[in-house]
């Protein structure tokens, strides 16, 4: 009867104003990878947090190895053999890899036979063995902060493995990994499968899901839609189940017509010699310029340089022939440039503030009466209009933005810039961590903006998105622009070729 | 859409959300009914006088708290303004005048001067915090001792008295007095005036919105075009002006001034703000809440006085109340999981 390692049935969970889970279920078999899919806000992360004891469920049961259990907190989950690698890592950069892995459960020994102290020797030997197990070749005494984000992720997985887990939850583990690193992760997953670990794999990347998983459970609006065997499933089928309708197009038809060159960047060089240098490019009115490159190509750094978040040494920026002086984001905004930053949480949302405040913050100056009194009524009109236009799902405009799903937060942030009506809009990974349905809506908005004559610069790491949305693609490698490709001629191969043109050392 | 709550539901929600406030109201009712003279005009005026001064300081500190900062120099800055006021309003014929060369000044000119000095100190503090990136805790701790030292040096650590008649008269000012009724103390007007002014700044101006945005996420605010450095400097400048005004009132109210005034007023102000719902994690806080918080704190002191508690116990009780308030504030967020 015990065919499942872990079953969750009839799980309900409500937050003030939202029913996040409505009789959700998930059944995991040992030695299988189980993909959990659904749009943002479908309740995947909430369900996982219930399993891991971060949230307590309102209703429903968890059956673990045939026993009905209730998991009160993450420590208990870990003790039972359930481990989770979170979407947002929470490392302690100023401590060593070993200390990060064994945090909270350091191996102990007795000093002078009585005083318990941390057994560093054992900790580092164990860490070394663990790192070997996940095929990572690091010095366990190295500071965690010296590693790259993807390497930290590997350490996080090593940490989960070290708990001798029987159930491992991977919440969007590949969102910041390069393809080589993804391969490494998949090898680790295969190893764990062979050991009989039941793995939950949450991701938005279809190709990964179809490659690595054995079963798929799909959720929509907090409800359980169904579980399917992965063999024989198609991307289209999964998407249609996720959004509840047939998606005929992944990208909208584009009717924007690029006009004359309006935005020009010449010889733009960072103060950091290892970052962007001698960058030249231009954008036309009504054009969508895609920016491609590998991780470390300095695309974000370049755009942040243009927007005044980072400093540059040389270079000129012109809009309609007029030279712009940009020392800080305010200068850029005042001169008609807007930028949707890459890291929503760090530089995007103001968590405890309302949606209204988050939308209006960049354009408050337009709503002053007598030059100093804010017209809150007009602002509320703008906000309502914006929520409607962006199709943002929220109980009210007074709701704190942190309680929305990632996709809806992103819509609010794009709305912030729409309210400001910029001429040039820089979008840094506008659809990262966003579900298919919301992605399509965001593409439509981008297209509409371009059609209305705005110049769009879009950084993306998704090839399909770049090819599907760009009029032209600028490719960067290692801080330099290595070439431009016309949108119609672009394909994976010619983009990758330019993206890997490293300078001979 | 938001679900509409019935009136009893709303009252219950307020009680659950503000247990300290509700408890204080109940306690004062009990004390008022059992101890003579608690519900008296005199006691009310004392309460209002104390509350007004703390409220003005709390308004100043609130901007710092909402932007995740703090201001530990508030009390010492108020004391400096108090002694400066004292020195400038001394009678020309007063024997032990500190600066005998000084002409007797109009009290309103004096007020403007001390506020200007407060603005300068606040601007310096704000500049240190926003441009030199010194954490507010350290920066204002430094300013606190510098201001105190300066205050001791120029007053020779001596108390200052012998104020001019118009200045003394002004602080006996009563409003709404008619016949038998002696009237309310005029301080209450300042509390109202500044309460409205700050409500306006916090809700109706870009400065206010930027302040909340910085508290919510400083980096996001900067990227959205907020000049974070300038906003922060302005917040500390306004705070300095508020402390100066409070110092001016302190001198008038007590009829004398010395460098030792205002000790730990900043802590009372921070406590009042916290009880009133200003979040220690930034981005949240309302003027109404601050007023209630300060009022509750002053009420607590007066109740203990009426109950005959040794004033030294005040410190212990106040400390406990502050810790409880913050613990409950944090719990609001913890409970949401």
Concise overview:
In chain A, 33% of the residues lie in helices and 26% in strands. With 505 residues, chain A is α/β, with parallel strands linked by helices. Chain B has a domain at 41-262.
Tell me which oligomeric state these chains represent: heterodimer
Could you give the order of the helices and strands of chain B?
HHHHHHHEEHHHHHHH
Mean pLDDT of chain A: 86
CATH topology of the largest domain in chain A: Rossmann fold
CA radius of gyration of chain B: 21 Å
Total domain count of chain A: 2
| CATH homologous superfamily designation of the largest domain in chain A | P-loop containing nucleotide triphosphate hydrolases
Task: Fill in the keyword field for this structure.
heterodimer, A: 505 residues, alpha/beta, Rossmann fold, 2 domains, six-stranded mixed beta sheet, 24 strands, globular, B: 337 residues, mainly alpha, two-stranded antiparallel sheet, 14 helices, 2 strands
Characterization of the model:
The complex is a heterodimer of chains A (505) and B (337). Chain A is an alpha/beta fold and 505 residues long. Chain A folds into 2 domains: 6-243, 3-Layer(aba) Sandwich (Rossmann fold), CATH 3.40.50.300; 249-336 and 424-429 and 459-493, P-loop containing nucleotide triphosphate hydrolases (Rossmann fold, 3-Layer(aba) Sandwich), CATH 3.40.50. In chain A, the strands form 6 sheets. Chain A has a 6-stranded mixed β-sheet with strand order 6-9-10-3-11-12, sandwiched between helices. In chain A, strand 23 (472-477) and strand 24 form a beta hairpin. In chain A, helix 4 (120-133) packs across helix 5 (149-162) and helix 13 packs across helix 14 (406-420). Chain A starts with 5 loop residues before the first strand and ends in a 6-residue tail after the last helix. Chain B is an all-alpha fold and 337 residues long. Chain B has a domain at 41-262. Helices cover 69% and strands 1% of the residues of chain B. Chain B has helices at residues 7-17, 19-34, 41-66, 74-88, 107-130, 136-155, 165-170, 187-204, 206-216, 218-223, 228-254, 265-275, 287-306, 312-334; strands at 174-175, 184-185. Chain B has a two-stranded antiparallel sheet with strand order 1-2. In chain B, strand 1 and strand 2 form a beta hairpin.
